[in-house]
Specification:
Distance between the termini: 30 Å
Shape: elongated
CATH architecture: Up-down Bundle
CATH class: Mainly Alpha
Low-confidence stretches: 128-138
């Protein structure tokens, strides 16, 4: 029994470290990319202005996605602390380790996430695919 407690504690510590490292990476990106470029109006033609506006919109979209990713990582850290990490918030079944490796902030198993997405909502694990590791999920 004591061995199981030690194993779970070590696993949670490792998970917490990995989630914190990812959150730190996202936070650093947010800080470095925080400045939204100003669209130049003076001395530029229509294409220059349009390109400037496009850069502004892309910067805002990127920041929005990073903020959402950070929010999901904080939720995952709370789930680790509460002992709920790796458990589907929809059905209560264990989330496969391969899925957690691919999507560390997953709160739903593949079946429930698929059902949520088909139901019209993006579901709890929706996020920017560009922010997800390039790994095959379970």
């Amino acid at each position: 029994m004591a061995e199981n407690v030690v194993e779970i504690t070590q696993k949670n510590d490792r998970t917490r470290r990995l989630l914190n490292a990812e959150l730190a990476r996202i936070t650093a990106r947010l800080r470095s990319e925080a400045d939204v470029p100003m669209a130049g109006v003076v001395g530029g033609d229509f294409l220059d202005i349009a390109q400037g506006i496009e850069h502004q919109e892309l910067a805002r979209l990127s920041a929005s996605r990073l903020v959402d990713r950070a929010r999901r990582l904080r939720i995952a850290l709370t789930r680790v602390s509460d002992g709920e990490y790796g458990i589907c918030s929809e059905c209560g079944a264990p989330i496969p380790p391969r899925r957690l490796l691919a999507v560390p902030d997953a709160t739903a198993c593949v079946t429930c996430q698929s059902r949520l997405e088909r139901a019209g909502g993006a579901g709890p694990d929706a996020g920017d695919p560009a922010e997800q590791p390039v790994r095959k999920s379970a």
